[in-house]
# Entry
Amino acid sequence: MGSSVKASNLPDYFRALLMIVFRNLPQRVLWKYEGDDLTDLPSNVLLGKWLPQQDVLGHPKLKAFVTHGGLLSVFETVYHGVPVVSLPVFCDHDANAAKAEADGYAIKLDLFTITPEGLLRAIKTVIRDPRYKTQVKHRQKLLLDQSEIPLEKAVYWTEYVLRHKGAVHLQSPSRHMGVIDYYSLDVVVFLALVLIGIYYTTKKLLRLMRILPKDEVSIDLPRKNIKVE
# Structure
């Protein structure tokens, strides 16, 4: 589940659900699990408190990757060209998982409505349906088609900033703003005063409407005798 989510902290029912699914898979399963409390572990499951994710994803026999959908995990799975089943937990996970599903190389599931049958079906689908492998290979090709590798890019821009003494021309103008300007405190105070003024004005008007007496107004209309022949 990545480094931000510990599988050992997941609810008991969800861990039981995962074991049901893994037991019904013909493939061997690597599961990053930090605890020592699991019993009746399926024979095809190997636990590890920490697994070298890059090495695992890069193994030529890997069929699929079940992940929470963290940004780094998504980049790594595209880099190695592995189809995904995502179970987003919090933060950016849902957006990353939705993007991966929209790109055609992942199936996104909901932790609150997931069932053993649904997860098992999703895993089998990304393994057996060649469209998922095709799409992730396409994304891999797009990702790797760069003029320079990320490490070279990082070194270049670090040296660029050093050569130009901080590269002031690339810095955000907000770096030189005061606290009031940066957080727009003057605007916040103005809007707060306007709202307070509206509140007290409305309150005064309602109070005056309750105090003023209600005058009875009577209108006498002239009567005319109309003779009908």
User: Anything to note?
Assistant: Residues 185-211 form the longest helix (27 residues).
